[in-house]
Amino acid sequence: MKQDIFEKPRHMTSIGGQALIEGLMMIGPKEAAIAIRKPDGEIIVEKRPVPKKSKFSKLPIIRGFVGIFKQMVLGIKALMYSAEFVDLEEDEGKEPSKVDKFLDRILGDKLQDVLIYISVIFSIIFSVLLFMVLPNLVASFLPIDKSTSVGSIIYNVVEGIVRVGLFILYMALTSTMKDIKRVWQYHGAEHKTIHCYENEEELTVENVKKYSTRHPRCGTSFLFTVMIVSILVFSLVGQHGLWINILLRVILIPLVAGISYEIIKISGRSQLKIARIINTPGLMFQGFTTREPDDSQIEVAIEAMKNVLVDNKEEDKW
């Protein structure tokens, strides 16, 4: 029987996850559990504390952007951890480069933390340039009067179409890479396992397999929502010179991300028809970022989920 993704599960949970290299991370309110399949087939699990909630964690809009940044840091740390096991055999016996030795001598134990924050900042800058600056630059060549309300609307709609088109192209291209396909399979295993847990079934491979690889609370759905919300928000500030437009878009990113977070948070647990309409495009886009996992990948997802549940228990309810 095909699962209705929109059907209200028996147990609403805030537990989410992230696919890694040959593994995944399940994130609960207090701890995250990282499960990795080593080259020899063994599954290892490491638990890490989730960043503590700050004074901004209860403020709508603001909590979204702050939480996303913290999760990016946690996610990149987990990604680097998973990469260690894949590169272990290849790197064995190799001498560190001069650059590695220099950085290690200057930064010492803080090296990894510095590299992680640099990675997060670089990721944000890359995303802004590709999905914010470039679409605005393309739209600026439109032969329309952007000072009128109609012209401004057309400008923002075209900019939004270019942004969504770039997002689709980016997803389609990355999905053709062999290593990324395996990551998408782990992403599918993550969603299936969360569905199984939310429906209060025993976490076994057979039970998990029957659920969908798509989930309303997925990061892909969040990214698509960002694309749509950005069209509405940027329309309100009007059109100016190219550099002013770019500056305004960069400044408004936290607001766009915060609003998108609230929309996904509400629609992800609502049974209203409007929530289904909001979620549908994001679920369609998950066709790029999820794949059907094999049994061994589901086993890793189950191991991660079981370990995050040990300490979070019932505190994960929404």
Describe the structure.
By secondary structure, the protein is an alpha+beta fold. Helix content is 63%, strand content 8%. Residues 97-103 and 314-318 have low confidence and may be disordered. The chain is globular, with a radius of gyration of 21 Å. It has helices at 62-91, 98-107, 111-139, 149-174, 178-198, 205-209, 219-236, 242-267, 273-289, 295-312; strands at 16-20, 23-27, 31-37, 43-49. The protein has one domain. A four-stranded antiparallel sheet has the order 1-2-3-4. It has ten helices and four strands.
Strand order of the largest sheet: 1-2-3-4
Shape: globular
Q: Low-confidence segments, ≥5 residues, pLDDT <50?
A: 97-103, 314-318
Give a count of the beta strands, DSSP E runs of length 2 or more.
4
Q: Give a short account of the largest sheet.
A: 4 strands, antiparallel
Ends distance:
27 Å
* Beta-strand proportion: 5-15%
Domain module count: 1
Radius of gyration, Cα only, in angstroms? 21 Å
Mean pLDDT: 81
SSE run: EEEEHHHHHHHHHH
- Overall helicity: 55-70%
Would you tell me the structural class of the helices and strands? alpha+beta
Transmembrane segments: 114-133, 153-173, 218-237, 243-264
Organism: Acetivibrio mesophilus
InterPro entries: DUF1385
Protein name: DUF1385 domain-containing protein
